[in-house]
TrEMBL record:
PROSITE patterns in alphabetical order: CYTC
Domain of life: Bacteria
Organism: Poseidonibacter ostreae
Alphabetized Gene3D superfamilies for the sequence: Cytochrome c-like domain
Domain Cytochrome c: 1-79
UniProt name for this protein: C-type cytochrome
Source organism phylogeny: Bacteria, Pseudomonadati, Campylobacterota, Epsilonproteobacteria, Campylobacterales
């Protein structure tokens, strides 16, 4: 699984290195540890996490498998 390719969909809003607040509204994800990323992505997926970007992110992660979320979390935690 190519985590960098998966992150390509994220980079449009979060920046190539996770350095930007998505659409000027989200938290900067650069520097997050793997567990925090997994918690956030699974929370977006099940609707238990998120603020102003909750609706946008739910759509982004709705079809991601646990393996894809794990790979993304590993990749993001190393940005």
């Amino acid at each position: 699984m190519n985590a960098q390719a998966l992150f390509g969909a994220c980079a449009g809003c979060h920046g190539q290195n996770g350095e930007k607040p998505a659409l000027g509204k989200s938290q900067v994800i650069q520097g997050w540890d793997k567990a925090k990323v997994i918690e956030a992505l699974n929370g977006y997926k099940d609707g238990s996490y998120g603020g102003v970007m909750k609706g946008v992110m739910k759509g982004q992660v709705a079809t991601k498998s646990d393996a894809e979320i794990d790979a993304l979390a590993e990749f993001i935690s190393n940005l």
